[in-house]
Structure formats: structure tokens, C-alpha cells
């Protein structure tokens, strides 16, 4: 059976205030043409269909058009909700849509309810595990601790239990939206560290033939049977080095996996340039970036006059300007943003408490209260509500 694995469409997202709607429309055209040209048997979409819980109308219209086109060519689609989606909104009408061959899996209680498709070698069971926010789903899945590894482990236990009841030789595919240990992150993914440690071990998926992952935006392989497709478009300059693609997966009669990358259209290349303004304006090696979307980091010790306008004269598509003046090591005036780089929300909050207390951080009780407050914000965001 031939599968096309994709994820993280983020319909409705812009890139530094530049609309990506036409680029997303081009991707959908490419997706549909790939399904036809490669004789795909099923399309897998591993979450983050939309960029936010309440997407703009243009994104909803594009999603609706995509479903109609996939249904129109008679190729089944299995799709789960991600942490950017509102699971309830995305899942509205799932029962009716399923009749057209589009199988939406957004309810954590349905993790062990597979979509069953067949080829000449027998059945393939597709299990859709939507993004599982620990604080929201721990009771549904019967676990005591609100942690990512616990809830995903419990969901996979139900999958393996159901698979054990299927006829011998039934092949299995799991779609999941999670941060799996060993994956490489980028700046455009929403942090999911609140609600326990963010990452889960790849071993949690043992016992199935293929795992189609979503959440991380770089295409990557965590094992022959566990892969991220990555997003079809770049959504931050940290993805400038990414090769955007989908996985074309051939699932053999005994569950063998052969995967090939299918490149996605690139609307415009990305470039990160760094240096003093005069060097950026005159360096001939940077000529190749003059058509790219550009992030420029200026290292001039003193802010130059009208830097953005001067950069735009050479790089018409410059989108963002970062000022990072050359300073000696251990400079006490190093930026606040630089000091917070790579720190989690919990670490930032606890660091603030220590700062205002003259170095005394929160005790265990206070740390639990802070964690609970962050969890509450996360839960409300997962429900598509505004934080109170």
C-alpha cells in the first residue's frame, strides 16, 4: 500500500506579515498532483492543519477545497488534530465527512478506533492519535500523571490491544502529533513543555509498522518506521536550511517500509545574513540572496542610520532586522532576549521569582503553583479559549 505522509500545513499562517495563502494553495495543488501521479492509496496528515484554533475564513475555504479535491479523486485521507488546531472545531461533521473517504481523528477517546483500508495483501489499520494535551486527556486515558509520555503511552497501549484482536497479518500505521526524543526543533513550533517533559521516547510506538509523526517542522527520520514529514513550507528563518518535503511510503505485504522524499514547491528561498551594514551592502558573496526573504543581523557597535531602508535597496524582500552589536564577552548589557534564549516558560517564570527575591527561587509548593498556572493557560489555549 502506498501512503503519502504530510503534516503541519498551518493553513492561515503568514511569514513575518507576508501572506502565505498563495504558497499554501500551490502546495495543495502539488499534493493533489502527487497523489495522482504516484498512484497513492491513502493520504496521512499528522496534525496542525490550521495555524490557530479559530482560523481565518480564507484558511477554512482552502481546507474545504482540499478535502473536496482529495475526495473527488477517490483517495482516502486520514487526518488528526495537532496542538495548533481546535480539535472540536476540526472534528465537526467528521461522521458525515467520513462517508466521502476523509477520516478525521480528533477525539482522544477514539485512539483505538482504526480506519481500515485494504489492498491485495490484506488489511491495514490506521490509528489516529490527535495531539494529547496531558492535563485535558489524562482522565480520558486513565492515567494518574499529567505527562506527555504517560498519556501517549496509554494511548498506544489501547492501540496495541485493539491490534491484537485483528486478523493475523494485519498491518498497522499510527498517526501522532508529539515531540519524540531525538527530533530536531525549529523556532516556529509552539512549545508544549508545560504539562510535563515535552519529549516522549520513540519506543512508545513499538509494535506498529509505520508511525507518521507531526509537530516538528523539519523532515527527519527517527528510525526506519518512525518519521516526521515536517511542514510543507518554512514558517521561521530557523528553517532556512530545511528541505521541505513529504514522505512517499510503500508499506509491503509483511509491513516492510520503503520511504522516498517528495520535494514541496518553494515560494521564495530564505536567507540569514549577519555582519556590519556596509559589509552586507557590498559583499559580492551575498548576491545570491537578493531574491530571497532575508533576516539581517547587524553587528555594528552603533546603530546605523535607516538600516532597513538601506538593506531593502539591495535585498528587496528583507523582512526582519536584528540588532546584535559586537560586544566583549561577559558584557553586562547583553540583551534580555539573549539571556532567555533556549529557556522554557517554567524556567523563565522561576528565574523571575528568584530575581525579585534577591536570588531565592520558588520552593516545591510554589513551583507546583506556578506549574499549575502555566498548565491552566495551556489547557485554555488547547480548548481554543482566550486565557483569563
From TrEMBL:
Where's the Calcineurin-like phosphoesterase domain?
1-218
GO molecular function terms noted in the UniProt entry? 3'-5' exonuclease activity; endonuclease activity
Q: Domain Nuclease SbcCD subunit D C-terminal, which positions?
A: 267-355
* Gene Ontology BP terms: DNA recombination; DNA replication
Q: Which domain of life is it from?
A: Bacteria
Q: Does the keyword Transcription regulation apply?
A: no
The protein's role, per its UniProt record = SbcCD cleaves DNA hairpin structures. These structures can inhibit DNA replication and are intermediates in certain DNA recombination reactions. The complex acts as a 3'->5' double strand exonuclease that can open hairpins. It also has a 5' single-strand endonuclease activity.
Q: Which gene encodes it?
A: sbcD
Asked whether the UniProt record includes Mitochondrion among its keywords, one would answer: no
What is the protein's quaternary organization? Heterodimer of SbcC and SbcD.
Task: Cite the CDD domains for this sequence.
Answer: MPP_Mre11_N
State the name under which the record lists this protein: Nuclease SbcCD subunit D
The family line of this record is: Belongs to the SbcD family.
| Keyword field | DNA recombination, DNA replication, Endonuclease, Exonuclease, Hydrolase, Nuclease
